[in-house]
Amino acid sequence: MGSGNTSSSAARKARIEEMRRAEQARERRNRVLVIGASVVAVAALVVGGVFVVNNRSDASDDSAAGKTGEAKNASGQFVTGADGVKTWQGTLSRNHVTKSVDYPMQPPVGGDHHPIWADCNGTVYTKAVKNENAVHSLEHGAVWVTYTDKAAKADVEALAAKVKKTPYTLMSPYENQDAPIVLSAWGHQRTVKSASDPAVDAFLQTYVQGKQTPEPGASCSGGTMQ
Questions:
Q1: What ranges do the domains of the chain cover?
Q2: Which of 71, 171, 198, 217 is close enough to 145 for a disulfide, judged by CB 3.0 to 4.6 Å?
């Protein structure tokens, strides 16, 4: 039984490390593209032309609806499975918006979100983060651990230690939720009784860069709160 868990954990770590390497390679390619575009722009200006490089990346691609914050966000309902995980049955839109979003669940598990994600490489926040930034992190395959002031201090400390060791996770206080401790991934959510609840590791094992991830391997670093 122990060897099976060890093998599963090793496989998850290997998968996450592979995602990290892919992310680093993509960032190197992006830097080369940006440098090349800059050289072209300068050359064009020297000869009197005007060359505009419009690099619309994942972090800046706003649709017309997203700019107004009026895009359809989410419709549907949670369905709870035998394992206690709630799965959103319905639509979770993925528009980039710059205004606040009225999510149908708290904490949100998907929907329209800010163009910039919240850092989620084992990042522990001591203050609340914005829903819109955190949802973008979920889109990248992160698990978001949230807790209220009713959570035991020992549980908060234990969860923080676990998150710090787990890439593609983030943790923050969140008062507007029904349970003291909640785990969220894109389209999925689970409440747990304590940090020692086996459901914590099971949720991380399944949903950190899990099959539900809309953008697997996308960056979980370099984000900001806006």
A1: 64-207
A2: 171
Residue pair 174/215 in contact (Cβ under 8 Å)? The answer is no
Residue 147 makes CB contacts below 8 A (sequence gap 6+) with 155, 156, 159, 171, 173, 174, 180, 181, 182
Return d(Cα 208, Cα 120) in angstroms, integer: 11
This prediction's pTM: 0.73
Using DSSP, state whether 63 is helix, strand or coil: coil
* CA distance linking residue 24 with residue 22, whole number of Å: 5
DSSP 3-state of 8: helix
Whether 170 contacts 125, CB under 8 Å: yes
Neighbours of 225 (CB within 10 A): 15
| C-alpha dihedral (156, 160, 166, 169), degrees to nearest 10 | 80
Q: DSSP string of 167-189?
A: SSEEEEE-SSSSSSEEEEETTEE
Contacts of residue 75, defined as CB under 8 A and 6 or more positions apart, other chains included, come to 90, 91, 104
With a cut of 70, which residues of the chain have pLDDT below it?
Answer: 1-9, 11-13, 15, 18-74, 225-226
Supply φ then ψ for residue 69, to 5 degrees: 75, 20
Cβ atoms of 135 and 110 closer than 8 Å: yes
